[in-house]
Amino acid sequence: MNKNVKVIDHPLLKHKLGYLRDKNTYSHDFREIVKEVSKVLIYEAMRDWKHLESIAIETPIAKAQADRIVQPPVVVSIMRAGNGMLDAALSMIPFASTGFIGIYRDKFIHNTVEYYFKMPQDIKGKEVLLCDPLIATADTIIAAIDRLKNYGVGKIKVISILASQSGLEKVQHHHPDVEVYTINIENEMNDMGYLVPGLGDAGDRLFQTK
After folding, report:
1. Cα–Cα dist 138/75, whole Å
2. DSSP symbol at 71
3. Residue ranges in the chain whose pLDDT is less than 50
4. Most CB atoms within 10 A, among 33, 107, 138, 142?
5. How confident is the model over 38-75, as pLDDT tens digits?
């Protein structure tokens, strides 16, 4: 596996993934588990953060130095499903700014369609945490990365709960500098472009739209 693909292997994540896969998991529980898993992925994506400054504080006992994150990342959601990860990301990094990309893969034209794009004005040069629960064909995630790079962003890290092997290979082919954080790699996709065994359509299960 490419060194830029980080599979976070943990018994608690495997336990929670089982509930995400289960078609009988209610939408409310599905949303909460997506948030819990996303927090862990964000935590791992921030593990090597280098932009820290030391400031003077005072504890109840004595004066001390404390580290503060500076130059925080921009958390970008690929709508709709990425919005299910957004609260989790911002609860971990409340001082981060946020961007939104509305994009989908049109099965009739066999291409991606962008319908919304909104970023912070100061995004140039900033590191981006790009949230999308599933990477299947990888067409939408690649199109989103293309757009972000056109804006001159810094390093991009993709936060995804599940990813296909072929999708990851495609991402690394087009964007070898991008890191992907996930909890499991699926080896199959069906004719509809869904991961197998997967967890279905994440957006529908998050927002009860089916």
Report:
1. 19
2. S
3. none
4. 138
5. 999 999 999 999 999 999 999 999 999 999 999 999 99
Query: What is the rounded CA–CA span in Å between residue 162 and residue 132?
Result: 9
Q: Which domains does the chain have, with CATH numbers?
A: 5-52+65-207 (3.40.50.2020)
Which burial class, exposed, middle or buried, applies to 134 when counting CB atoms under 10 A from its CB (0-12, 13-18, 19+)? buried
pTM for this structure?
0.93
pLDDT of residue 112: 82
Quote the tokens at residue 51.
């932009």
CA distance 22 to 31: 13
SS3 state of residue 179: strand
In the chain, which residue ranges form alpha helices assigned H by DSSP? Answer: 11-21, 27-45, 83-92, 139-150, 165-174, 202-207
